Amino acid sequence: MRKVFLVFAGLLLVAVIAQFYLATFGAFERPLPEPGTGAIVPHAMNGTTVIPILSLLTTIIAAVARAGRRLIVLSAVPLVVVIGQLFVIFPLVELTGSTMERTNTGGHIVFGFHAILGVLMLGAVVTLFQEARALARAGTVAPVAEPHTGV
Ligand code: HEM
């Protein structure tokens, strides 16, 4: 089960790195596409479907594998970040009076945290992967040989 956990931690890491790649894959498109269309769509899809689903599955697998509270929490961080993006950051931007057609300084200040939350998520999944790998190795290490007594 610890190996399955490691595989999912790895998939989650790849999905989060892909999220950064897909941000700039889409952000430079010109002419500017209509809102909700164009090259930024893969970023939106990966962020709102692939990452939360993988995070939820990894969290469940961490619990089943008895990986410990710390790794369970780290597995859930991407899901929490996605919820934060969709239900805190975007609504806060709207509250500043920014719209799809015209943004303002308040909206820009809040939108900056879209990337900061992403950095937190990246830090969490890098740590998660490293610790999941250590856990998988700990489960497969051969028992240390008894010291030779010379008898
Ligand atoms: C789980 C984390 C994230 C989620 C759920 C998410 C979600 C989204 C969504 C739904 C959009 C709107 C797409 C559209 O216009 O149709 C978007 C746009 C964007 N995101 Fe993210 N995102 C995440 C992380 C990041 C990170 C880490 C970065 C930067 C490194 C980033 C940079 C951008 C950029 C540059 C845009 C395009 C803004 C525009 O041109 O209108 N996102 N994101």
Which helices and strands occur, and which strands form pairs?
Elements (H helix, E strand, L loop, with lengths): L1 H26 L13 H24 L4 H27 L9 H34 L13
Helix pairs in contact: 1-2, 1-4, 2-3, 3-4
The structure holds protoporphyrin IX containing FE.
Keywords: Membrane, Transmembrane, Transmembrane helix
Pfam family, one: DUF6220
InterPro entries: DUF6220
- Helical content (DSSP H or I, runs of 4+): over 70%
Domain count: the total is: 1
Q: What is the end-to-end distance?
A: 40 Å
Q: Write down the secondary-structure element order.
A: HHHH
Pfam families: DUF6220 (PF19728)
InterPro entries: DUF6220 (IPR046192)
Keywords: Membrane, Transmembrane, Transmembrane helix
Description:
The chain has 151 residues and is an all-alpha fold. It is built from four helices and no strands. The protein is elongated. Protoporphyrin IX containing FE is lined by residues 19-20, 23, 27, 35-36, 40, 43-44, 47-48, 51, 81-82, 85, 114-115, 118, 121.
Descriptors for this entry?
151 residues; mainly alpha; 74% helix; elongated; binds protoporphyrin IX containing FE
Short note summarizing the structure:
The chain crosses the membrane at residues 44-64, 71-93, 105-129. With 151 residues, the protein is mostly helical. The protein is built from four helices and no strands.
